Amino acid sequence: MSSFYLSNAYQPPRAPEILLLKQAWALLGNLSPQAFMRDYWHKQPFLVRGAIPAFAQAKALGHPLESPLSAKTLLSMACSGNCEARLVQSKPWRLTDFGSSPMRRKDLPTLDLPNWTLLIQGVEAHQAAAAKILSWFRFIPDARLDDLMVSLAGKGGGVGPHSDSYDVFLIQMAGRRKWSISSQSDLKLRAGLPLKILQNFKAQQEWVLEPGDLLYLPPHTPHNGVALDAGCQTWSVGFRAPSYRELLQEGLWRLAESLEDIPALKAFYADPQQYATAHPEVLPQELIKQLTKQLKSLDLNDINQFLLGISAYLSEPKPSAFFMQPPQALSYPQFIRRLCTTPLRPHPLSRLICHQDQVFCNGENMTQAATPLTQGLWQSLAAKQIITPLTKEVKKYLLQQPSLGHLSNSIYSAYAAGWLIFEPFG
Description:
- By secondary structure, the chain is of the alpha+beta class.
- The chain folds into 3 domains: 2-239, Cupin (Jelly Rolls, Sandwich); 244-274 and 281-301, no CATH class; 332-422, Malonyl-Coenzyme A Acyl Carrier Protein, domain 2 (3-Layer(aba) Sandwich), CATH 3.40.366.
- Helix content is 26%, strand content 18%.
- The chain has helices at 33-39, 53-60, 71-80, 128-135, 244-258, 285-298, 304-314, 332-339, 372-384, 392-399, 410-416, and strands spanning 46-48, 85-89, 94-99, 116-120, 145-153, 168-174, 177-181, 205-209, 214-217, 223-227, 232-239, 344-346, 352-355, 358-361, 364-365, 420-422.
- α5 crosses α7 (304-314).
């Protein structure tokens, strides 16, 4: 048994392709995902001791597990310039937002110093362990998922009492952190600070989380987390909640763009029925009549007219996302042959959203002009986050169809753009 723990770092598994939504999960305190969503999601906080049982099991055997990512790895990520990173220091409060600019190692505190927190966004794009942790939460729609942020802190480190507008799962991965929460309605902020810190936070419940514990907080729950140990790590799985204004604006904007594809709308306005008017300043009734007719033909009362555009919007990657083409891109025939032996997955920064039989990836409709076979592959990719190796029959069909080559096969085009990657990742 001891040889199993030689690495001493927890290795998170990827979630199964098909999640058992009615079965009890240790991650959710032996609740099923259905029960959790019914009783807690967006409703009330939820604490789970031993959400990752491996930590408690290893500790009981005298071989405590460490975080999947060492402090050294996280500090190197912050200094690489490939991640969004912020440094928060208290006593006094200071915020250094490095964005995606490289940090210098000397700009960062050492682990033994107190009262600091390093926040690294989008860790799943760079570390396979973080991407696998995110896969555990796919019982919640992908349209809601934001990213995984890691907080590395010295003793006493935190970002102060605050309230977020989104749901979050806080997973303790190293050291201990004391969490305090409140149901107070007073959300006034302290003035003159670089952080949104509550002025009159009054804790009503407190817990100390150890590695493997999890705390879920719904939106607008005042909370405060303070590291109790040097090298404390909290992994935050956050979810986005766009405003209705944002969603409708994006849907309407994309609907307006789609009008370019309607030939009848290219006709010019004509008014042979226009009569002489004594009020030239008034909008003509003939124009109103014709526009009314055109709007009725668009059937704007059909919500699906908006949902395709909204699906495209929700599949857009973060503005900071950067995709690199494969360094030695495969030709189309090589790509198909590789698909017969190696699973293909979305790049961790790629977003896939389905509506009806259409699949959107990174803001683009990938199935609009696709063959039924390619459409099915995209649907499998969106549902299971993987295309498993192709059968010989599918391989033969794809290689014999020149029209399915690199110019028209959206799976291959997405691979060539860096949106899809072959395993292993990271």
